[in-house]
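User: Batch of two.

Assistant: Item 1 of 2:
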Amino acid sequence: MDQGAVRQADIADVPTSFDASVVLLDVREHDEWERGHAPGARHIPMGEVPARLTELDPDAQLFVICHLGGRSQRVAQYLAAQGYAPINVSGGMEAWAQAGRPVVTDGGGAGIV
């Protein structure tokens, strides 16, 4: 299989709750995360992913998200090359918010994308 080919998921196909077996990896920068993120998402900024790879379970279903889908696509391609089976979230957090899904801050309040 072409390692550059990463599965894409429309926002409707992305779960709304996450646990050890289903991970939503948010690769946006710290300031973007602080403004608002999906409840239950795991945050590893794009530049930190190589150093923090061990934090990701290769057996988990791994959805990768950023603001619009570009950075998450690059991270997903990197993860695929490392033996993971990531799924890029098309449209990113913008699509998440437009679909009416919750966006929260670390304090638990309403966030913005």
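Item 2 of 2:
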Amino acid sequence: MCDVPTLGAQETSTGAATTTEAFEARLVEALNASGLMLLLSLGHRTGLLAAMAEAPPETSEALATRTELDERYVREWLGGMVASGVVETDPSTGTYWLPQEHALLLTDKGPANLAVYSQFIAILGSVEDDVVRCFREGGGVPYSRYPRFQEVMASDSGQTVLPALFDAILPLAEGLTERLERGIRVLDCACGRGRALMAMAQRYPASRFVGYDLSQEAIDWARREADRAGLANLTFEVRDLSDFDETAEPEAFDLVTTFDGIHDQARPRSLLRGIRRSLAPGGVYLVQDIHASSHHHLDREHPLGTMLYAVSVSHCMTVSLAQGGEGLGTMWGRERALAYLEEAGFGDIAVHQLEHDIQNDYFVCHP
């Protein structure tokens, strides 16, 4: 690997040197952070982080034996964790440990396991050649090129949607939880692995739930889990929603939800019109989607803006374009979302943000 050059000393202007040096420092920090994400993903997937969260200081040999992993790989991974300041070491004893304050953020010991999100870096990087081709030739990268994306998204949803679903998200629509308890018809479009639906079906046995998704893998997983849980009030269906404005059953549902499911659709306008068509009188559409602006300059202060644009270019936008779709992209933004919802026939729209979730907006929509 080539050495990273230093540029600041080459500048002649004091002001330019300061700017260049600061930007150079930022890039070096970004390179290290990118490396850390890859190492965290490896630690998460191999179980090393979870194993270290519960253990006293131990050697690389002991850790490798306990986790049934190859010691040479474990030792090199530990070196990266020490260099990043995530793991501590005592060179006199050759032992390593994960501080509890770090374990709370990198394992299931705390309220959110942030190591889950590190997996996106490797997944998106794996399709870089395909995305480069699309830059040159147009088109997109199909869903089939992302074999683990549904799995990681389900883990993401498990930390943003599921913990807040009953106490914060569903109560955003006035009277909704009471209606669910009495029994209504519910549809989740682009449901993925359907974890939110399963939670609702279990909580509200008097209601009936349906999930649609394009991914056969996701639907197969959801059906297996629903059968295992004995959820007779829940069904899943593989369905292309690009013509939902024409194929949706009119007035079939009292509640329709989409959780992070609109922006990567091939034809989001058609889906939204179909959702409006499928709502019964008095029905409500509850939307979770990415918190952003529809204007690039207003995304400068977004705490996850750069990462989310990377996700868009390498997944959400391109999978839509692969279907001949609109390519709306992850960062389509609140302004465009409101315009699309109004165009679809929703006249009463309230937008909310939740304290625990800096990534999403929540829209409560009535016709």
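The radius of gyration is 23 Å.
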